[in-house]
Specification:
This protein is of the alpha+beta class. The chain contains 13 helices and 18 strands. One of its GO terms (biological process) is asparaginyl-tRNA aminoacylation.
Length: about 425
C-alpha cells in the first residue's frame, strides 16, 4: 500500500510503501539511518543489516543525498523523535540517483542558498516555513468565510496608483500607460459597495529600492473592505483575524514550529483585544526611549516600530497618524482635522508593521478636496469618485502583508525565507 509520511500514523505495525527523497543518511556499522522526505513531512527509515538482504543494506549505505526512491517497510512508533514514527525498511527501489547535490549538510552562505532557492526549499526549515505560510493562507479563507466576506480579485495591471507613490513598476498596455498593482484597495472599495464585505488575496508590487529584512519587491496582501463599518469595528475585525491565524498555526503546525524552535509562549499571547496608542502617545514613548530627534509629523521607521513594540508583549495598534503622511483616501478624525482615522498594527519581537488600515473618506466634496491637495488630476480616478456619488456609505478596510506575518509567526529573521521564490532588489533568479 502506497502512503504519504503525514498519514503513517494510520498504519502502525503495517507494511507500506512511501515515495520519497533521501534528505540525509548516516550509518552505524550494521544499521543505516535514512532521513526521508516526501513533501508532506520528514521521517526516519531504519535499515538493519540482519533483517534485509545484503544487496538492500549495501544499497541503503550507498544512497546519495536527494536521490528519489520507493521505500517499503513496517511503520512503528518512535518516542525518541518529534515526529513519533519511523519505518523499519525492508526494500528499496531506486528511482533516480542524484549526484553532487550542491546543498550539503554543512553551512552555506545566504547568497549561495538564494542562488539555489529551487533546491533550498527542500530543507527541513524551509519546508516548515512554507507549511506555516500555507496554514496562514488556509486560516485566512476560513476566517473571512465565517465572517461572511466574499473573495474578490482586483486587477494586477492598473492605470493608477493606490497611494500616489512614484515607486511603481511601469509597463505599456497597448497604447496606454499601466502599472503593476501596489494595492487592490481602491477596487476593493468598489466591490464592497456591491457586496458589503469583501476581501482580496493576491500579489502586489513595490519598486522600492530597499534592502531591509522586512521588504520584498513582490509580495502578497490580504485586503478586506467593509461597507457600513466604522474604524473601531474594523480594528476589532483585524485583531480577531490575527488571533485566528495565530491559533490556527499553533493548532495545526506544532511540528513545524518545533522544527523552527519557535517560542510558543509568545504566540500564545496573541489574544484580542490588542493594546492601542495614538500617534501622539507613540511620539512621547519614543522620546522617553531616547529617540529625542523624532518630531510630530514624521513617519516611523523600523527602529521606531521596534522600540514601540518592546513595551508590549502582543501586537500593538498605533492610531490617528497625521493626515499629511497618510494616503489621500483616509478619513479625517471628526474631532481633529490634522489626523486621520487609521491604524498600523505593529507585531512584537521587532517584526514591524503587519497591517495598515483606515476608515475611508465617504464624503464626495471632501474627497474632491483631497484630490486637489494631492494633485490627482485627470480621469484616472473618476470611477473612484463615483463610488461617493452613487450611494456612499461609511466604510473601512485594511491590508495585511502575508510575508511579514509569516516571518513573525515563524520567528524567522528575513522575509526572503517566507515566500517560495523571493523577488529582491538585486534578485530575479531563480
Amino acid at each position: 500500500m502506497k502512503v504519504t509520511i503525514n498519514k503513517v500514523h494510520q498504519f502502525v505495525d503495517q507494511e507500506v510503501t512511501i515515495g520519497a527523497w533521501l534528505a540525509n543518511k548516516r550509518s552505524s556499522g550494521k544499521i543505516a539511518f535514512l532521513q526521508l522526505r516526501d513533501g508532506t513531512g520528514f521521517m526516519q527509515g531504519v535499515v538493519v543489516k540482519a533483517d534485509v538482504d545484503e544487496t538492500i543494506f549495501q544499497q541503503a549505505k550507498s544512497l546519495t543525498q536527494e536521490s528519489s526512491l520507493y521505500v517499503t517497510g513496517k511503520i512503528v512508533e518512535d518516542s525518541r523523535s518529534s515526529f513519533g514514527f519511523e519505518m523499519q525498511v525492508k526494500h528499496i527501489e531506486l528511482i533516480q540517483e542524484a549526484t553532487d547535490y550542491p546543498i550539503t549538510p554543512k553551512n552555506h552562505g545566504t547568497e549561495f542558498l538564494m542562488d539555489h532557492r529551487h533546491l533550498w526549499l527542500r530543507s527541513k526549515k524551509q519546508h516548515a516555513i512554507m507549511k506555516i505560510r500555507n496554514e496562514i493562507i488556509q486560516a485566512t479563507y476560513r476566517f473571512f468565510e465565517q465572517e461572511n466576506f466574499v473573495k474578490i480579485d482586483p486587477p494586477i495591471l492598473t492605470g493608477t496608483a493606490a497611494e500616489e507613490t512614484t515607486e511603481l513598476f511601469h509597463t505599456k498596455y497597448f497604447e496606454e500607460e499601466a502599472y503593476l498593482s501596489q494595492s487592490g484597495q481602491l477596487y476593493m472599495e468598489a466591490a464592497a459597495m456591491a457586496l458589503g464585505r469583501v476581501f482580496s488575496f493576491g500579489p502586489t508590487f513595490r519598486a522600492e529600492k530597499s534592502k531591509t529584512r522586512r521588504h520584498l519587491i513582490e509580495f502578497w496582501m490580504i485586503e478586506p473592505e467593509m461597507a457600513f463599518t466604522t474604524h473601531e469595528e474594523s480594528l476589532e475585525i483585524q485583531e480577531n483575524y490575527v488571533q485566528f491565524i495565530a491559533e490556527s498555526v499553533l493548532t495545526n503546525c506544532s511540528l513545524e514550529l518545533n522544527t523552527l524552535e519557535r517560542n510558543l509562549e509568545m504566540l500564545q499571547k496573541i489574544k484580542a483585544p490588542f493594546p492601542r496608542i495614538t500617534y501622539d502617545e507613540a511620539i512621547e514613548l519614543l522620546k522617553q526611549k531616547g529617540f529625542t530627534d523624532i518630531e510630530w509629523g514624521e513617519d516611523f521607521g523600523a527602529p521606531h516600530e521596534t522600540a514601540i513594540a518592546e513595551s508590549f508583549d502582543k501586537p500593538i495598534f498605533i492610531t490617528h497618524y497625521p493626515k499629511d503622511i497618510k494616503a489621500f483616501y483616509m478619513k479625517p478624525d471628526p474631532d481633529r482635522e490634522d489626523v486621520v482615522l487609521c491604524a498600523d498594527l505593529i507585531a512584537p519581537e521587532g517584526y514591524g508593521e503587519i497591517i495598515g488600515g483606515s476608515a475611508r473618506i465617504d464624503d464626495l466634496s471632501l474627497l474632491k478636496q483631497r484630490y486637489m491637495e494631492h494633485e490627482l488630476i485627470g480621469d484616472a480616478y473618476e470611477w473612484y469618485l463615483e463610488l461617493r456619488k452613487y450611494g456612499s456609505v461609511p466604510h473601512a478596510g485594511f491590508g495585511l502583508g502575508l510575508e511579514r506575518t509569516v516571518a513573525w509567526i515563524s520567528g524567522v529573521d528575513h522575509v526572503r525565507e517566507t515566500i517560495p521564490f523571493p523577488r529582491l532588489l538585486n534578485r530575479l533568479y531563480p
